[in-house]
Amino acid sequence: MAPAPKFSVEEQQVKIVNAAIECILTSSVTSFTMANVASKAELSMGSVYKHFQCKEDIVMALAHQSFSHISTVFQRVFDLALTTPEKVIAICLLSPEKMQCFPFANELESFATNDAVIQKASAQWTQKMIDAGARCEQTFKARLSDGITADEFKDAVNVEEFIEEITVSGWAMNVGYEQVLRVQQSRQIVEGTASIMAPLSPSDPLIRSMIRLINSYPWRHPLTQDAVTRVVNLLTELHFR
């Protein structure tokens, strides 16, 4: 009888996480089981529990990957040859699918940030998820700060306060608007005639609101409709929407 294949610690973790993804895709973030994962990964339950003490640990590992993916997307947008206002609106104009590491990312985020899940998960994986989320926010703020040139503002502006305000306000508007769409489009989503994964149009209320917010600061070159159109065209060319 051939000996069982040997895998390194890292290889076993990858196999387990990949198996969990497959299990979730055929069920849900809340209903997959450790037994399903072990079977799909072709590992013993003992091997799985050596890496993840419970399914909540696996959820945290997946959330870690999700936040890391978002950080990468932010970096790619901030690397584009755009002004700071254009980069901020570009984030809002991205296709939601480009921000998602997994098809179940929204469900994953809600589950991973639930109090009961956080309390049940082990400290190791919870901290990894928290650190990844913090890095995601830090990436956005750092790249935004690095990209602002001294002559982009007409008047003196506290850059740190601007970054804090635009980060909090932008995040709140986007997340809140997504919840509104879920309620408004629930029937269409069920029927398959609408999707919250579709990128927003430049005339969408959220984009118009974000433009107003961005232009409330004293930019030498505030956002114009032509600038927004150029951003949309660039993102489309790069398959970001």
Short summary:
With 241 residues, this protein is mostly helical. The chain has helices at 9-26, 34-41, 45-51, 55-78, 84-93, 105-112, 115-120, 123-147, 159-184, 186-191, 205-215, 225-237.
Can you describe what's shown?
The protein has 241 residues and is mainly alpha-helical. It has 12 helices and no strands. Helix 1 crosses helix 2 and helix 4 crosses helix 6. The longest helix is centred in the C-terminal third of the chain and has 26 residues. The radius of gyration is 21 Å and the shape is elongated. It starts with 8 loop residues before the first helix and ends with a helix. The model has no long low-confidence stretch (mean pLDDT 90).
Uncertain runs with pLDDT below 50, 5 residues or more? Answer: none
Number of helices: 12
What do the pLDDT scores average to?
90
The biggest sheet amounts to: none
Q: What gap, in angstroms, lies between the N and C termini?
A: 52 Å
Order of helices and strands: HHHHHHHHHHHH
Structural class: mainly alpha
Over the alpha carbons, how many angstroms does the gyration radius reach?
21 Å
Shape descriptor reads elongated
